[in-house]
Amino acid sequence: MIVIGIDPDLTASGVAVIHNGRILELDRIPFTGMTKWLSYQSALNDLLIKIEDPNLIKPTFPRMMPTARNKQAVSNRISQNVGQVKAVATLLIETITAAGYQVKCCRPLVGGHKAMCKKDAAYFNKLTGWAGRSNEDCRDAALIALFGV
Predict the structure, then answer these.
(1) b/e 2-20 (16+ beta carbons within 10 angstroms → b)
(2) For every one of its 149 residues, what pLDDT tens digit does the chain have, with 9 covering 90 and above?
(3) Which end of the chain is more exposed for a tag (fewer CB within 10 A), N or C?
(4) Which CATH architecture fits 2-147?
């Protein structure tokens, strides 16, 4: 079975194709192209799709931002971005499920490896064995596919 990890985003979601714990592909796919991309993947394999669902976590609350000039504006922008991602995740889950795919919603990962992989491609490559290029969205998608529950 192939596991597809999806990290939802407003402009293009990170995706990862995993087989037997090995990353085969990392990419970014716009919302409008996701079902077409999945249909190509499923033509070749039986799929399990793991999608990061930020709706499974608590809402955002103000946090300490000592260097921000306008702390309220920064907090509002963070909340707005999280809201956009939650909306995209909801729509992706509905669309992919309606297309007949097996979807598992996963809580966003937290902790040391996740944080380090998000910011450090070399660390991600060492941890996963991936040798190609990646960005934060693709790395998040791979971690969801590999470790998401």
Answers:
(1) bbbbbbbbeebbbbbbbee
(2) 899 999 999 999 999 999 999 999 999 999 999 989 998 888 767 899 999 999 898 765 555 556 766 766 666 666 677 778 899 999 999 999 999 999 999 999 988 888 899 899 999 999 999 999 999 999 999 999 999 98
(3) C
(4) 2-Layer Sandwich (3.30)
Going from N- to C-terminal start, the domains of the chain cover 2-147
SS (H, E, C) the chain: CEEEEEECCCCCEEEEEEECCEEEEEEEECHHHHHHHHHHHHHHCCEEEEEECHHHCCCCCCCCCCCCCCHHHHHHHHHHHHHHHHHHHHHHHHHHHHCCCCEEEECCCCCHHHHHHHHCHHHHHHHHCCCCCCCHHHHHHHHHHHHCC
